[in-house]
C-alpha cells in the first residue's frame, strides 16, 4: 500500500478512540497538520514521526509500512486487534502500571508472555 503512513496513523488514532482534535492536542501539533498526515497530503518530519510512534508505542518502521509487526511491552503484535487490546489496557492506569513494573522482571515477563499467548485471539 503506497499511502500506508496516513492510513496507519488514522487507524491507530481510531483504535485508540481519539478524535483528530484530541490526538493533535496530545501530540502538540495542529489539527490541520494531523489531517494532512492522515490524508497523505503531507508527511511528518522525522521528529514528529518519532513523536507519533512513541505516543502509540509502535515503531517508526511500522508507521512507514516497512514492517507489519508492532512492538510494545517487549511483545510482538501483528494485528490491529492487538493494538486495540493494548489501548484498552491503557484505560486502566493500575493495570498499565502493573505491566510496566513487569518489564523490570524478566522471569515474570516471560510468564506474562505465556498468558498473552493464551488470551490473545486472532
TrEMBL record:
PROSITE patterns the record matches: HTH_CROC1 (PS50943)
Keyword DNA-binding recorded: yes
Keywords carried by this UniProt record: DNA-binding
Keyword DNA-binding listed: yes
Pfam hit, one: HTH_3
Coiled coil: none
Residues of the HTH cro/C1-type domain: 9-63
CDD domains for the chain: HTH_XRE (cd00093)
PANTHER family the record matches: HTH-TYPE TRANSCRIPTIONAL REGULATOR XRE, TRACRIPTIONAL REGULATORY PROTEIN-RELATED-RELATED
The protein's name in its UniProt record: Helix-turn-helix domain-containing protein
